[in-house]
Design goal:
There is one protein chain. The protein has one domain. It is an all-alpha fold.
C-alpha cells in the first residue's frame, strides 16, 4: 500500500505523535488549564484529517488529485503534529520549572545541601542552563519548516527537567527530616537555655538570701 519512503515518513510521524501524546498526558495531569488548550486539539484534529485523506486514496475511496498528493498531505500531517508538540513542550517546560522551584521553597539552603549535595553545584545550574537552551530553541524554532531534530532536542531537555524534578522529590523526605532535626535541636537548646536561666536565677536568689 505504501512505498518505502511513505512508510518511513509514517514511522517518523508515529514516533513524533507518541512523544506528543506523552507530553499531553503529563500536562493534563499537572495543569487543569491545559485541558482547555484548543490550539493543540485543533492541530491534532487537522493532522488526523490529512491522514484520513491519505488513507482514502490508498484504500481507493478517493482518487489521487495529482502525483504529489500523498507527499503533500504527509508533510501536512507532520507539520500539524509538530506544532501541537511544540505548544505542549512549551507548556510542559513551564510546569516542570515551576514545580522544581516549588519543591524547595520554604526549606533552608543547608537542608537542601544536606539532602542533595550537588544541588547548588550541579542541579540548580543545570536547570538554569536547560531553561536558557529552551529559550533559544523557542526563539529559533520554525513551525513553517518542521525539524524532527530540533523537536527531539527540546523534548530531551524537557525530559531532563522531569528527571531533576523526580530527583528533588525523592530527596524531599531527607530535606524534611533535616529541617525537623534542626528544629528539634533548636527547641532543645532553647529549653536548655531557659532551664539554665532559671537555675542561675534561683542560685542568685539563694545567694542573695544567704548574704542578706
Amino acid at each position: 500500500m505504501f512505498s518505502n519512503t511513505e512508510r518511513e515518513n509514517l514511522k517518523h510521524i508515529a514516533q513524533l505523535y507518541g512523544k506528543v501524546k506523552e507530553l499531553i498526558i503529563f500536562c493534563e495531569e499537572n495543569h487543569d488549564e491545559f485541558k482547555s488548550n484548543l490550539h493543540v486539539v485543533k492541530e491534532l484534529r487537522d493532522a488526523f484529517d490529512h491522514l484520513m485523506r491519505i488513507f482514502a486514496v490508498k484504500l481507493d475511496i478517493k482518487e489521487e488529485k495529482d502525483g504529489n498528493y500523498i507527499e503533500i498531505n504527509m508533510e501536512k500531517v507532520f507539520g500539524h503534529v509538530y506544532r501541537a508538540g511544540y505548544d505542549t513542550l512549551d507548556f510542559a517546560a513551564i510546569i516542570l520549572r515551576d514545580k522544581i522551584n516549588k519543591e524547595v521553597i520554604g526549606f533552608s539552603s543547608s537542608a537542601i545541601q544536606a539532602a542533595i549535595p550537588t544541588y547548588y553545584s550541579e542541579v540548580r545550574p543545570s536547570v538554569e542552563n536547560i531553561t536558557s537552551d529552551i529559550i533559544k530553541l523557542r526563539i529559533n524554532k520554525d513551525v513553517a519548516n518542521p525539524s524532527a531534530e530540533v523537536f527531539e532536542s527540546y523534548f530531551q531537555k524537557t525530559i531532563k527537567l522531569q528527571e531533576i524534578l523526580e530527583k528533588i522529590r525523592s530527596a524531599k523526605p531527607a530535606i524534611v527530616e533535616y529541617e525537623n532535626k534542626k528544629h528539634n535541636e533548636k527547641l532543645k537548646n532553647t529549653a536548655l537555655n531557659i532551664v539554665v536561666g532559671i537555675l542561675i536565677g534561683v542560685v542568685l536568689v539563694i545567694i542573695g538570701l544567704f548574704f542578706k
